[in-house]
Design goal:
The complex is a heterodimer of chains A (about 250) and B (about 110).
Chain A lengths: L2 H24 L10 H14 L4 H9 L1 H22 L24 H23 L8 H27 L2 H24 L22 H26 L11
Helix pairs in contact in A: 2-3, 3-4, 3-8, 4-7, 4-8, 5-6, 6-8, 7-8
Chain B lengths: L3 H19 L3 H23 L21 H32 L12
Helix pairs in contact in B: 1-2, 2-3
The chains are: A mainly alpha (about 250), B mainly alpha (about 110).
């Protein structure tokens, strides 16, 4: 189909769908007054039932923990796919030369960039760990913390270059974090089944609300998510940065 | 004001799909897919929004304070993370395509001709 026809079909489809969309928007609940009962019920009872103050984490790791398990495996699949597509092609050797684009010079790194990256990389990684650890009390959790840790690691590449980054960030460790995190989450679910309770039942002591170590099994699940997200994003960064290296001599063009 | 969030979500979906339909570059296409995805963020967050309410975190406020819907916030949270990794997967595919065929234009690929 040529592009003009495709655009015409798309515009026709838009015209057909548009009245339905506007009609639906007119019949949606009033903005700012949600009608969904589940969220309000969790807000009302979550702290008393699960001894945590962050209701988003309570939904993610407890009330709808099973959905997060599925989401965890989607993450695992997407990261595995990316790694399978990109691994073994370029930049596997630690001393691989940078890829050169004709007409674009490779400028030396400024000392200011190195200084800023060296100062901020550990601080950002620490902040990521803090955000991940306070999942049950204040805004945060494994998803956000894992991504912050991974981006802190990326600053090492910015400040100290490819070889230092590769020496520091080992893909075997990241593989173990990614797979181990997802496995830890799934195993947390089986803990309840061993005690003849439903899958993903919160079997550990719940602790006191507003403390870092509260929420029982949710803490372990949060650790699993942190490892999986941090490891997964770092793996993606690693594989894409390997692509910045020069083509190997034996690599088919 | 009641219509605005829903129409913004529909508009983001529409312009994203328009970009995908007319795209001549796979990297641009992946960007358009992210725009389509952001329409789901707007839809979900708007569905759970409540005027004069706090975030669903009862650390400084006692439980029972009016708060926005935590279920939809959790959905958006996982949506964002999955969106980022799927974008990475699609970009890796685009990279492999460029290595094999030296092109990123969907029109250059045989089934599209």
């Amino acid at each position: 189909m040529n592009p003009k026809w495709r655009l015409a079909v798309f515009l026709l489809a838009c015209l057909v769908v548009a009245p339905g969309v506007v009609g639906l928007a007119l019949h949606m609940p009033r903005f700012g007054a949600p009608v969904l009962a589940l969220g309000d019920a969790i807000n009302a009872q979550g702290t008393a039932q699960r001894h945590v103050s962050n209701m988003v984490s309570a939904v993610n790791f407890d009330y709808r923990g099973f959905d997060t398990l599925g989401e965890e495996f989607m993450l695992l699949c997407a990261v595995t796919g990316t790694v399978v597509l990109l691994r073994g092609a370029r930049g596997e050797a630690l001393d691989a030369r940078p890829g050169i684009v004709p007409g674009r010079p490779i400028l030396p790194r400024s000392e200011a960039v190195t200084l800023v990256a060296r100062v901020f990389a550990p601080l950002i990684i620490l902040f990521g760990v803090y955000v991940a650890a306070h999942a049950m009390t204040t805004p945060g959790g494994g998803f956000q913390g894992g991504v912050i840790v991974a981006s802190g690691l990326l600053l090492v590449f910015l400040g100290d270059g490819y070889q230092t980054w590769r020496a520091l960030v080992k893909s075997r460790v990241l593989d173990a974090c990614e797979g181990g995190g997802a496995a830890l989450y799934a195993l947390c679910g089986f803990a309840g089944m061993c005690l003849r309770l439903p899958f993903l039942s919160n079997v550990l002591p719940l602790g006191t609300a507003k403390e870092v170590f509260s929420g029982g099994l949710m803490l372990l699940e949060n650790l699993g998510v942190t490892l999986a997200v941090g490891g997964g994003f770092s793996l993606i960064f690693l594989e894409f940065l390997e692509e910045t290296r020069a083509r190997k001599p034996d690599e088919p063009k | 004001m009641n219509l605005l969030p829903w129409l913004v979500a529909a508009w983001l979906l529409g312009v994203g799909l328009y970009g995908i339909v007319t795209s001549r570059n796979f990297v641009h296409l992946v960007g358009c897919l992210s725009v389509v995805q952001s329409s789901t963020y707007v839809l979900l967050l708007a569905a759970g929004f409540r005027w004069r309410a706090i975030a669903p975190i009862f650390y400084d406020h006692p439980p029972g304070t009016p708060a926005v819907d935590p279920v939809l916030q959790a959905l958006v949270l996982t949506d964002v993370v999955i969106g980022a990794t799927v974008t990475a997967l699609l970009l890796a595919m685009a990279l492999q395509l460029h290595k094999k065929r030296e092109t990123l234009d969907p029109e250059e690929l045989r089934p599209m001709r």
